[in-house]
Amino acid sequence: MDYTAQLDQAINRLHEEGRYRTFIDIERKNGAFPHATWKRPDGTEQPITVWCGNDYLGMGQQPVVLEAMHEAIDATGAGSGGTRNISGTTVYHKRLEAELADLHGKEAALLFTSAYIANDATLSTLPKLFPGLIIYSDALNHASMIEGVRRNGGAKRIFRHNDVAHLRELLEADDPAAPKLIVFESVYSMDGDFGPIEEICDIADEFGALTYIDEVHAVGMYGPRGAGVAERDRLMHRLDIINGTLAKAYGVMGGYIAASAKMCDAIRSYAPGFIFTTSLAPAIAAGAAASVKHLKTDQGLRETHQQQAKILKTRLKGLGLPIIDHGSHIVPLIVGDPVHTKKLSDMLLEQFGIYVQPINFPTVPRGTERLRFTPSPVHGPKEMDALIAAIDELWSQCALNRAELSA
């Protein structure tokens, strides 16, 4: 076996399909977000504006967050020194879990190093706790949820995206006595559409199923305290397990679940992804706790964020560009071809200093390749004007379709 040749073939396939991904080396500037510096491959530098980051609210450079991290690192040093079971649980971890439990109105919360790990570890562990568990998963769930469901060894059913009638059909076909779990999201990050939370909760009650919701693209940004779409819709009490991230709207790192005290206790006791992983650095936990606490009261930041998203969508629609608009903060601009998507991304970066990453298969279905914009409260009129002018020019230059998509 020529292993090197096999690797070459695998990588070349991505190049041929226009799906090869490259890292853009950027240097963020404290206090200047969304402005940054692009470190070009040839060693030169170029000022850029970041339009595709997941630091949705700019909390990664919020003074309250940075101050908490500095204080923690001065007090404790760098790393946690171990897993949560072996010397890696500190006052900072406990404080953050208490903030998260309070945020979601749950008895407890459990920290992980990322929301991906939180999903994977929790969903792959639940069948150990509920033998015979059948998991019903939305077709467009996150890769981490798919992986957790795949690895658990239990029965799984995939229902069509947001199709509550199909979910009902699947539930009706299974043993009424079998334990059941419905797994879905509140905001689907590629199209920006919302999950039918109340309808799914109603069905879960009817069939005696547990509910598991992923709110990673909603926590911090929706609801009066930033607990997510379920809080906005006053449905948190009907959800058994809530998954969230600390690396998007909260601007730091890590993931978590919030649930009953017994559920969190069981997951931490049985999930290898939790048991055998070094815990978050205390400084990270401290910064995340400060961010969560701050956003519980900063409704103005959330309102500005939504306003910026509406402005960008309105202006793109005004140019007749094919965006998807489901009313969330996510702004997908459909290009429909991987090569064209990559070319547009490259030209925006090189010619206009605008950074937006191309989104291609397998992240989205073939034929729906896109540029995904994430406007924030700190993207001002100047940045917005520059983006609109650049897209308008390049869209015409590349002779792309301006027929608007329906939501």
TrEMBL record:
Associated pathway: Porphyrin-containing compound metabolism; protoporphyrin-IX biosynthesis; 5-aminolevulinate from glycine: step 1/1
Transmembrane segments: none
Keyword annotations from UniProtKB, A to Z: Acyltransferase, Heme biosynthesis, Pyridoxal phosphate, Transferase
Pfam families reported in the protein's UniProt record: Aminotran_1_2
InterPro entries assigned to the protein according to its UniProt record, in alphabetical order: 4pyrrol_synth_NH2levulA_synth, Aminotrans_II_pyridoxalP_BS, Aminotransferase_I/II_large, AON_synthase_class-II, PyrdxlP-dep_Trfase, PyrdxlP-dep_Trfase_major, PyrdxlP-dep_Trfase_small
EC code(s) of this entry: 2.3.1.37
Acyltransferase among keywords: yes
GO biological process: protoporphyrinogen IX biosynthetic process
Cofactor: pyridoxal 5'-phosphate
Coiled coil: none
An MF annotation (GO) of this entry: 5-aminolevulinate synthase activity
Domain Aminotransferase class I/classII large as annotated: residue spans: 48-391
Catalytic activity: succinyl-CoA + glycine + H(+) = 5-aminolevulinate + CO2 + CoA
Superkingdom assignment: Bacteria
NCBIfam families per record: 5aminolev_synth
Entry's family note: Belongs to the class-II pyridoxal-phosphate-dependent aminotransferase family.
Assembly description: Homodimer.
Protein name stated in the entry: 5-aminolevulinate synthase
Gene behind this protein: hemA
